[in-house]
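Reply to dn_fold:

You asked what the input looked like. This is it:
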Amino acid sequence: MNVLWVFAHPEQRSLGGALRDDAVAALEGAGHQVTHSDLYAMGWNPVVTAADYGHDAEERFRVGPVSASALRNGTLSEDVVAEQMKIKSADAVIVQFPLWWYSLPAILKGWFDRVFLKDFAYGIEDPSNPGRTLRYGDGNLAGKRALVVTTAGGRAPALGPRGLNGDISELLFALQHGTLFYVGMEVLPPVVVPGANRVSDEEFRATAAALRERVLSIPSTEPIAFRTQNGGEYDDDLVLHDRYAPGMAGLGVHLQQEPTT
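and this is what came back:
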């Protein structure tokens, strides 16, 4: 298995850094290949600019079409191309970060902004269904697996369904469903490390062992059962048909459930 490990933490000696190093050693020890995108160490530029695409500043900068044109014409910035090549070569992508302000660190959000471009990660037309695009379970990155690993300051109960911080599955929905599943990846249940500022040595050992187990089982882990866009469960306006999750609303309806008859 070829794994791309995208790491977004400014401190190598952090809890996240220690967990990553331990898990990478386990992967490599089992014969897997690990490629790294350590964004802070790389000095990754998270800001989308026209310079990424060799765009003429005299013309309006429409990011989607311009980036797609640059992809076709081979004029993308070298750092973006390098990351896309890593993704193409990967069987699985691990995205690791601390949960800051209920979201990703800006440097990681900018990695997705600059790398997941039109005609590479999205905007792929469905040849069998004109007018529809391959997304939410389909697309150029279908067949690859994704695993989110995050550390959070809040304790586990506060990240639960009735916790003040919000349910962690909903906090991660934009990343797991709206980004990774959107581009076709099979998204595995995340590894969440709560109370990250208060982890004891014993808790670290247990967490490291759990993460080792999760990364080694990437090929066999059952992915999150998100509904696919083109599986017949959504209407032409991409609204879930009434027979699925009847009477329900919110993010949870996009998880597969048995339809009523």
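The chain has a mean pLDDT of 93.
Hope that clears it up.
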